[in-house]
Amino acid sequence: MTGRVVEFDEARGIGTVEGGSGRLFFHCTAIADGSRTIARGAEVSYEVRAGHQGRWEAFGIRPANDRP
């Protein structure tokens, strides 16, 4: 899927992406390059999986122009 980062709280390490699947939560450990930080507004590609609290989450987040 593709979308953009709409929120990211670096201190808490959490954020949301918005794309074809709606708005999804993500944790900084879901950022594929291991940096644990990403800019708000960044265009990204990501996958969706069931999270620990029973809700859908984004993971494998990477810049949209850096697809595997």
- How are the strands of the largest sheet arranged? 3-2-1-4-5
Order of helices and strands: EEEEE
**How many DSSP H or I helices?**
0
* Arithmetic mean of pLDDT: 93
* Total strand segments: 5
Q: Structural class from helices and strands?
A: mainly beta
Q: What labels would you give this structure?
A:
68 residues; mainly beta; five-stranded antiparallel β-sheet; globular
Description:
Strand 4 and strand 5 (56-63) form a beta hairpin. The protein contains no helices and 5 strands. The protein is 0% helix and 53% strand. The protein has 68 residues and is an all-beta fold. It has strands at 2-9, 14-19, 22-27, 43-50, 56-63. The chain has a 5-stranded antiparallel sheet with strand order 3-2-1-4-5, with no helix packed on it.
Ordered list of secondary-structure elements with their pairings:
Elements: E1 2-9, E2 14-19, E3 22-27, E4 43-50, E5 56-63
Antiparallel strand pairs: 1-2, 1-4, 2-3, 4-5
Summarize the entry for a quick read.
With 68 residues, the protein is mostly beta strands. The protein is built from no helices and five strands.
